[in-house]
Task: structure prediction
Amino acid sequence: MPKVISPDGSIRQDNWVVVPRPAEGESLDIPADQPALIPADLWLAGHEHFTGRADIGVWFDSHDEPEILDGRVNELPVIAVNFPKFSDGRGYSIGRLLRERFGYVNELRAIGDVLLDQLQFMKRCGFDAYVLRPDKDITKAQKCLNFFSQGYQAATDTDIPLFRRRAS
Amino acid sequence: MYVYDEHDRQLAAERVAQFRDQTERALAGELAEDEFLPLRLQNGLYIQRLAPMLRICVPYGMLRSNQLRRLARITRDYDKGYAHFTTRQNVQLNWPALEDVPDILAELAEVEMHANQTSGNCIRNTTTDQFSGVQADEITDPRPYCEIIRQWSTFHPEFAFLPRKFKVAVNASEHTDRAAIQVHDIGLQMVRNEAGELGFRVHVGGGLGRTPMVGPVIRQFLPELDLLTYLEAVLRVYNRYGRRDNKFKARIKILVKALTPEGFAEKVEAEWQHIKDSPTRLTREAIERTQSYFTEPDYAALDNATDLLATQRFEHRGFDQWLTHNVDSHKKPGYAIVNLTLKKTGTPPGDVTDQQLEQIADLADEYSFGEIRVTHHQNVVLADVRQDQLLELWHAITPMGFATANLNTLTDVICCPGGDFCALANAKSIPVAEAIQRKFDNLDYLYDLGNIDLNISGCMNACGHHHVGNIGVLGVDKKGDEFYQISLGGSSHHDASIGKILGPSFARDEMPEVISKIIDVYVDKRTEEETFLDTYRRVGIDPFKERVYA
Ligand code: HEM
Ligand code: SF4
Result:
């Protein structure tokens, strides 16, 4: 069961499972008794079955385009974005697009190769739930979420860049 | 010059604490090597052939004397007493110990310096013309815009893990480009439109390295207030669609080429439409506030010292040469721009000792309002020297080794550290530079040859900008032996071009002779007014080939 870190560094557990993309010819294997995150395009393909279900969310891979959910994002209780490698920074752009362009308000979860030193960037790009790679020391998350007390730029956490705050 | 306020100071202190924590976790084995790698690179720390290398940021090349003195002390206390000015206006230390780096960063932060994002796959130091603010022909002073970009790009949460490193350069002169903007990922040329409004012509997708390219224009006019939102759009398109499967195809130039410049520009425009009116749009107050740090120093009201200088020139031939070659005209009457060359034969280009750093600091205090600039040609500039003090300055710097009057000539070589320091090198480069400097040791002959850019890199990463040298030298490896390939016709200025390879490579001891033959062809073929590049462009590569491989 994933241990989930919140932006304030607190830790909780839940039982969302990430359902991998099925192989050619296979169908989605959604567990009966657990909430599940399924590939976003498959959710869209069958959204008449899924809409309104509080136990079905979606996940994007880093090369996926969140544009496909434009207008529908808030039908989802959870959207997860996979960081296949911590050095793959596409997920940060996906996060900001979901929040700032498509107005997504529910939980945005970072999954995959999620390490401590990336947490604050994720937070600033709109992620409000982080599933740390299991071998990392979760007790250090709070410190790493707060290395910086502010940022120069506007991002999802603040739309007031420092140059505007300086002017006021 | 920009001065930190409480926000900058706090962020700098937090950065030092963060890197200290990261280093401790790395040394304790909590961070795997590949996990620490991008973190240390974003603090300028490479692991090199002989020791770590630390690249310290010099935003747009500006330094104050107290910063130079601190750099001097750091090289003494933590390194071997010398440092290196680079082609991206930064400073490199070649021997710091990993455990000491957090302390070095703390010392730097005390004088408003850092090593943020000097390496790694993020937005690097924004560079500009070393004559910014003091030349007559600039559209406006580009440094406030560089500072605005510096702040926007520092710890940008969306762009810290790009497909590859990312470099921005700004130029504001109408007639020259001393910042090589067309071989940067983004090159910004400041312009005024027909209505007289200030803005940028935007080049995207230039760069050197394995696939050298001149960056095409993707927007003819970007209004100045739109600078950051447009950069954000370019970076977002690159972050999402740049290739990540192959490190050699990950630069933005490959994406621009794949989409065509028009196709790329369309994608950027589409992205930009969504964010152009966001709070990231600059304000007039933000620009003016930043500009207020780059006001003119306290110039005296002077006339040009024409008669005095004429007399002094007449009395000192060396001073006359130096004035002609190393000193440039200044927008203020009675002042001059002085280039201190770091190209004395026998000293690796760009190298400075701790004592020299202190000497430069003293010179800056005495002659130039306490400021200096680093050039991408690996020299330094005192930008505001009184004309009536030039002779005194020349006397002072001659024994220090900064008065070699070879600026922009063949021996003002750009040269990377090559095999002497760099783990990636295929060949040494410093001894090649030195051998060529020795061969061309006659200043009058050099002056007769005029401006020639000779650029040397020890491998195809192109740290020495060999592709854009009028003459470029590239170290190549042939079955374990060091060889050198020559290219001709490169330029990094407004007429930017990538040099063309001459032919098979040469052994190191052949190099001075080969360069001599190339120069002979120029001397034979040139017309009265032609530079080396003009002649090359007119006659093509064949006459050079014939002579060199005869
Ligand atoms: C020993 C230290 C150094 C190491 C390990 C190093 C490493 C590298 C590497 C790996 C690249 C790759 C670029 C690519 O593939 O695009 C590069 C590029 C570059 N380096 Fe260095 N470098 C070193 C020293 C220097 C120095 C001393 C300078 C300045 C003289 C310099 C200036 C540059 C520049 C300007 C580029 C850019 C090429 C471009 O625009 O694409 N580097 N360096
Ligand atoms: S060009 Fe190659 S040899 Fe020279 S410094 Fe760069 S990486 Fe090293």
